[in-house]
Specification:
Order of helices and strands: HEHEHEHHEHHHHEEHHE
Radius of gyration: 19 Å
Strand content: 5-15%
Low-confidence stretches: 269-274
Structural class: alpha/beta
Shape: globular
Largest sheet: 4 strands, parallel
Length: about 270
């Protein structure tokens, strides 16, 4: 057995042990690699009747991601449902300060906690070890409300999540990360349904052009497009198409960020001088 396979096997065993120790669970299921792995392993280990996978639906969830959650639940045989979250009704979230994620996760816990209580279950989130080093106050909000992070407890990094998911044959193993749409707005820019819709439409258009890992950062009527480094040259070759789909979402100016995709590039801790 190669070292990579051996490592994935050990990490999978650790994750299985951790979700078994949690027992009945309500899994916050966004359809990404992290929550997908937790949902599938928990369902397999704890049992479908005792694991409810829940997708939080609001304007901050891209419509394509919502559709994929439904499809994954069907493919994997998950017990699944949607719940509406109400973060856009909270002024502190709309104001978009650096603690925005705290208020977002608080709204998520408001929706999930009653489901967990009714089932004598624990709320579980797909947070991995690498996430702990980023600016993510939402993790604190979830922990304060009793949520568990089995990927962290089992010692899985993002690379581990992808390796284990691939070993299990989950198609999410190489799925590009897709954070909340509000993360595309600079702190201090109010979060509105119209703005989130523009970001979602622009990103959907770019994905239909064949671009995978990407972000459309919203700066008023200017869209700053972050793509994987390997896609920058192709974006220039297809410049007219890129401009067309982003302008169709309502932006006047379209720029290509030469640094490429960076997760959390709007967070204060990761801003870098050119």
């Amino acid at each position: 057995m190669c070292a990579e396979a051996s490592g994935a096997s050990g990490k999978l065993a650790a994750l299985r042990a951790e979700v078994a120790s949690v027992g009945p669970a309500v899994v916050a299921f966004s359809g990404g690699a992290d929550s997908g792995l937790v949902a599938k392993v928990a369902t397999d280990v704890v049992g479908r009747d005792d694991v409810l996978c829940v997708t939080a639906v609001s304007a901050s969830l891209a419509p394509d991601e919502r559709d994929d959650c439904r499809t994954l639940a069907r493919e994997w045989g998950l017990r699944w449902r949607e719940v509406a979250t109400k973060e856009l009704e909270h002024g502190a979230y709309v104001a978009n300060g650096t603690d925005r994620c705290y208020h977002c996760k608080s709204s998520l816990m408001d929706a999930l906690a009653p489901l967990a209580e009714a089932a004598s279950a624990t709320v579980v989130l797909g947070v991995n070890l690498d996430d702990l080093g980023d600016h993510r106050p939402g993790q604190r909000a979830a922990a304060e409300r009793g949520a568990r992070f089995p990927l962290v407890a089992a010692g899985l990094t993002k690379a581990d999540v992808r390796a284990v998911s691939r070993r299990l044959g989950l198609r999410t193993w190489d799925k590009p990360a897709a954070a909340c749409l509000a993360s595309r707005l600079p702190y201090g820019t109010p979060v509105t349904i119209a703005t989130l819709g523009a970001v979602a439409e622009a990103e959907r258009g770019l994905r239909r052009l064949g671009f995978g890992q990407l972000r459309v950062r919203h700066h008023g009527d200017l869209a700053r497009v972050e793509l994987a480094g390997a896609d920058l040259a192709r974006a220039l070759e297809r410049r007219a198409d890129v401009v067309r789909v982003v302008r169709a979402a309502g932006y006047r100016y379209v720029t290509l960020d030469l640094e490429g995709f960076r997760s959390g590039s709007l967070n204060p801790e990761v801003r870098r001088a050119p």
